[in-house]
Every structure is written in structure tokens, then in C-alpha cells.
Design a protein that fits this description.
Aconitase, domain 3, Aconitase, Domain 2, 2 domains, five-stranded parallel β-sheet, four-stranded parallel β-sheet, 15 helices, 17% strand
């Protein structure tokens, strides 16, 4: 059966799926920070359980500078993060810019969860990156999985040659004006077309970063030679990528793959400057029932007496069986 690149990665990571319930999605890499992890660690303490897969949990802190004072709140958060890392056996990774860390922890075909501020960028490396808040960090810390309904699939294809001087941010402005700030709600976007693929990885990151601005759940660009060359240059985990060559070679959308929505644009229509969102598009996006449908995390109990984390903890045996049956190497696994 023909599949999109999003389907291939998603389906490869589904531990269990039942009609009417969220999928149990396995997460390859969990990036946590000082803001979204505090309550989650307290939840682990109350349950008296460890971090389930500490080697797949990457703690990131932005490098501090002595001449820039930090607030009392920020200092408290950093102190608590240090305490939590010590208590749960996690190592902190300090980077001046968090996006510089991404090639070191990600390679095409993964599922990654992290702060919503950074999740969209990762899609340029051919991964499904999901932005989560503190309510769901605990799930992943405790089980390396999360409960989530599968989003709808949208393809945004841009073909043609950009005018001289135009770049990724001009594509974003144009797409935002055409699609509107809520036009992709409930979708996970695949960006395609020769205009997109001709961009360097940094430009692709800019494109994917727009996903939440148009209401989408996230964005992805199928990996190609540029993707692997970028990871080869910037990453120390390329050996793992090479070991997964059979899986990696399938990370493209099949020609007859079906999307829930396809939008096509001509690069020749893109010009310089700022675009405005027409009133008609705003009205259409607000009045269209399909556009207002949100794909959200299910925070209610899915079984009597359980919340999401408790339910996943009750399924740890299934999660372990899934890990053993995976046909490609989990990042940083012994």
C-alpha cells in the first residue's frame, strides 16, 4: 500500500493502535529543558519510578553568559533541573544555540519530542518532531511513549524557480498569506516540490518552522542527499544512520500516496516584501468546520481509573516487546 513519508515513520513507531483511542507512539529521542520538565520529574518521584530510557533522554540548557544576569525564576529552574538530572542519572548538554544540537541527536526516520519552540525545525532533517508541554513530558520520561491521535496529512508543494534575491522566508510569507494562520489546523505537513528541495538545510528549517504559524501540528521534508550530507558533516551519529540503510532508503512518499489535502503553488508567484492575509481567508478559516478541528493530546482517562501516564505504565511489557522487535537501531541504544 502506498504511503507518505509521514505515514512510514509514524506507522513504524506505533506500539498499539485501536479505533477510537489515541495511538501509543514510541519516541526515539526526548529533548527536555528547564521549563517543561519540573512537574514531570515530580510525577516520577510520586510514583517512585525512574526515567525509563535515560540514554534516549537529552537534557539541553542554553549556555549562560556571566555578563547577562538571569532572573530568580530562571535560576530556580536551572537549579531544579540540575537536581533532577542528578537524581535520575541524566547528563546535561550545554549549547549556545539549541538548533546547533539537533544534528547530533537526530537522523532521518526518527520520532522526537521537545519544546514546541524548537520542534518544527527538526522536520527539515526528515523526522517527525512533536512539540509537547509539561503535561506530556511525564508520559515520555516514564515510558518512552506518548498517547496521541494521528494527525491528518497535508502536502504543500512549491515548484519553479524563485526570483533572484528571494529565499525561504519569502516562501513562508507567501504561503502564510495564501493558507492563513489557521488553514492547516489538524494536519501534519509534508513540504515538497523542486523549489523546496533546492533549498539548503538551513532554508528547509525555515520552511518547517512556519508549520505552527499556519496552525499545523508539525512539518517534515523527505530526506535526500542534502539531508544525509548535512548530518554527515555536523553529526557524530552517522554510523547509526548507515546501519539503518534499509529503513532510510524507504523514507520518501510513494507516487500514489494519498493525502487528506494537497496544496500546490508556483514559485513564480512569490515576490519580495510582506504579504497580508485577506479578510476572506480569515473568515473562511474560522467558518470552515474542517479547519477548526484540532488534533490534541487526550488528557482524559482512556480507561476507567487511569490517566495517560498510568495507562502507559500498565503497558510497559508491550512497549518492551515493541523495542525488541524494531527492525532499525534506536538512537543511543546499547
Amino acid at each position: 500500500m502506498a504511503q507518505t513519508v509521514f505515514d512510514k515513520i509514524w506507522n513504524e513507531h506505533v506500539v498499539s493502535s485501536n479505533a477510537g483511542f489515541p495511538d501509543t507512539l514510541y519516541i526515539d529521542v526526548h529533548l527536555i529543558n528547564k521549563i517543561t520538565s519540573l512537574a514531570a520529574f515530580e510525577g516520577l518521584r510520586k510514583r517512585h519510578i525512574p526515567v525509563y530510557r535515560p540514554k534516549q533522554t537529552i537534557v539541553i540548557t542554553e549556555k549562560s553568559f556571566q555578563h547577562i544576569p538571569i532572573s530568580e525564576l530562571s535560576r530556580f529552574q536551572l537549579d531544579m533541573l540540575t537536581r533532577n538530572c542528578n537524581d535520575f542519572g541524566l547528563n546535561k548538554t550545554e549549547h549556545t544555540r539549541l538548533d546547533q544540537l539537533f544534528p547530533y541527536v537526530s537522523y532521518p526516520g526518527q520520532t522526537i519530542v521537545c519544546d514546541k519552540q524548537f520542534s518544527d525545525i527538526l522536520g527539515a532533517l526528515g523526522v517527525i518532531a512533536i512539540g509537547i508541554n509539561e503535561l506530556h513530558v511525564e508520559e515520555v520520561l516514564a515510558t518512552q511513549c506518548m498517547l496521541i491521535h494521528k494527525p491528518k496529512r497535508m502536502k504543500i508543494e512549491v515548484n519553479g524557480k524563485l526570483a533572484k534575491g528571494l529565499e525561504a522566508k519569502d516562501i513562508n510569507r507567501y504561503l502564510l498569506s495564501e493558507i492563513s494562520a489557521d488553514g492547516a489546523s489538524g494536519y501534519f505537513i509534508e513540504y515538497a516540490g523542486n523549489t523546496i528541495l533546492n533549498l539548503e538545510i538551513e532554508g528547509r528549517m525555515t520552511i518547517c518552522k512556519m508549520s505552527r504559524e499556519i496552525g499545523a501540528f508539525g512539518g517534515i521534508i523527505a530526506p535526500d542527499e542534502k539531508t544525509f550530507a548535512y548530518i554527515q558533516k555536523n553529526s557524530s551519529i552517522m554510523e547509526s544512520v548507515n546501519q539503518d540503510s534499509a529503513y532510510q532508503s524507504e523514507l520518501f512518499s510513494d507516487d500514489s500516496a494519498v493525502y487528506d489535502e494537497v496544496l500546490e503553488f508556483d514559485a513564480e508567484d512569490i515576490g519580495p516584501g510582506n504579504y497580508g492575509i485577506g479578510v476572506s481567508k480569515l473568515i473562511q478559516s474560522k467558518s470552515n468546520p474542517q479547519n477548526t478541528e484540532k488534533i490534541a493530546f487526550d488528557t482524559s482517562a482512556i480507561l476507567s481509573g487511569y490517566n495517560d501516564t498510568d495507562y502507559l505504565l500498565s503497558r510497559l511489557e508491550n512497549i518492551e516487546e515493541f523495542e525488541h522487535s524494531k527492525n532499525y537501531k534506536i538512537f543511543n541504544e546499547d
